[in-house]
Amino acid sequence: MGVTMAVQLSSSYLKRSYQLLAKLCVGEMGAVQAFERSGDIVYKWARKKFKNIFRQIPAEKTTLDDKRDGNEIGVIVDQDRARFILRAVHPDANIPGRMWITDVQLNRSGNDCLLAVRLSVTSLQSCTQEVPFSRPIFVRSILKNVGIADVIQISGQKHLLQTPADVDAFLRFLAMPERHMPVVLLTPCVREEDALCNGYMMDADQMADDLTGVAHVFQISLDVNDYLTDCIGKQWSAFNGAVRTYYPGVSFDGSDYYQHPLLTQQSIRLRGVFPSDDPQLCMHEIEEYVQRYVLAQRVAWEERGFDFYLAAHQQLLQEQRASSEQSQDELISSFEEQLEQLKKQNDETMSLADSYANDCALCKGENDQLRQRIGRLTAQISVLRTQLQQCSGQPMEQTVPEDGSYADIEEWIERYYPDRLFLHPRAARSLKSAAYENVKLVYQCLKLLASSYYDYCTGQGTYERFIDACKQVDPGLAEGGSITDAAAGMQGDSYFLQYNGKKRKLERHLTKGNSKDRRYCLRIYFFWDDQDQVVVIGDLPHHLDTSTT
Questions:
Q1: Which helix (H) or strand (E) holds 359?
Q2: What is d(CA 294, CA 244) in angstroms, rounded to the nearest whole number?
């Protein structure tokens, strides 16, 4: 399938190559010294980089602006606002038309110092070379000589989890909204002979160094790995050599664990089967998708007080015009310079918009291809299910167990009906507080939705056959519309959820009983998604609120 590219808004596109928003570790040196020392490090880096181009750059950091042969350097030292801003632009040494843009800003407020780094690359629309991930060298220098923190200090070294208290602190850290960086967790192999690196499948020390200023790397010991799983459940945990990435904003109650990548020991081993010149292929694969995630995140720079050089320099020009008597020629020159800055700002915004639009078009194409592939795999599973029934001489539903607990339902669906049922994260949360006494009936209802109701929705059966199947399971079981649209609108979001980026109503429900006591009243809310050809379980097993309940 061809991919329709977005309309181009400019002659070039812009990609991020690195971005960082973090606090400086003030410590004993104090905010002022940490701020000044970090500014000195960045300024020294720029002087060294451009020493053969701009020979008149002062040794001490000062406000300046200069351009030559496609290279640019701009510095604002603003003592009144306690900020240091630098912009450096230079051509790529090997790729014609490609420019590297480094934006750095330090803001100090009271005892807090924030560091913002943004490395961008502009390329001609005709350029096909990938933009590499690249961390400016001064980031490590600031980390070493001052210190940088993303809630916890960024050290470039692994963090060890060796006690239950360590795990508790780790879980609190994962849930903190202030955390901006991903967390990569390495778990030990249960059998020592399975491990590839000191009891683990990967080298945590090397990964931590590679991801310095990008992600936090944690390594858990075998003694407390089970404790972690007990705390957050199997779906959210990792064990026996697996490696898990927890992105920022994780909520063990509200997030979808599928969005936080897990590579099992088997998956890691399978990657080693294919010939490769890279002996650490799988580790580098993890590092690359973590890097891609970091670059894809939209950082609200302005909301956090960062305007960077182009906008800050325009403000400086305006203030200079307002505070001094300038001749007509000086005023014209000042306005022309500001106009040039505005044009650069606009060009970069349009180039970034081009980049985002093209990325969206590519993602849409990939998404369409994946949907087609899922459709083919689903059809193949259906054929295999039919063949299995023919070989065994009995319907598959008769071999699927019904004696699990509420805690087992999510794993049960993944094992037996991954192509027919989708347990929404909201439903998974509801199961944690489930009180309905007849757990077996809940399993039987889910089997009904995955068999006769699924057949009805896909044209392989009738609604009457589904209702007959319900009555055979339990004469008191009924199915129908959950609530009218008007009544649902009066209940807030109780009867609605987000699915595939859209707000969907929990249209149907299986019911038994009318007691207000949750132990004796069953409700399973669901809807059919025609695009994914799946029954979406939205909530269970209790009755949702209505004006009467």
A1: helix 328-392
A2: 16
Contacts of residue 169, Cβ cutoff 8 Å, sequence gap at least 6 = none
- The structure tokens listed for 222 are 């075998």
C-alpha distance across the termini of the chain, in Å? 51
Residues 6 or more apart whose Cβ sits within 8 Å of residue 354: 6, 8, 9, 10, 12, 13, 14, 125
Token output for 192: 């020592």
Separation CA 76–CA 83 (nearest Å) = 8
Q: How far apart are CA 219 and CA 167, in angstroms?
A: 11
pTM to 2 decimal places: 0.77
Q: How far apart are CA 411 and CA 418, in angstroms?
A: 10
Task: Give the Cα separation of 291 and 297 in Å (integer).
Answer: 10
Cα angle value 410/374/458 (rounded, 5°): 80
DSSP reduced 3-state for 266? helix
Q: Residue written as tokens 């001749």?
A: 327
Q: Which residues lie below 8 Å from residue 429, measured CB to CB, with a gap of 6+?
A: 253, 254
> 72 pLDDT exceeds 90?
yes
Residue 546 pLDDT exceeds 70? no
- How far is residue 350's CA from residue 352's CA, in Å, rounded to a whole number? 5
Interatomic CA distance for residues 457 and 462, integer angstroms: 8
Mean pLDDT value of segment 435-460: 95
Rounded mean pLDDT of 123-148?
94
* DSSP assigned state of 233: -
Instruction: Please name which of 72, 16, 74, 10 lies closest in space to residue 42, comparing C-alpha atoms.
Output: 74
For CA atoms 323, 326, 330, 336, the dihedral sign is positive
Which pair of structure tokens corresponds to residue 510?
A: 């299986």
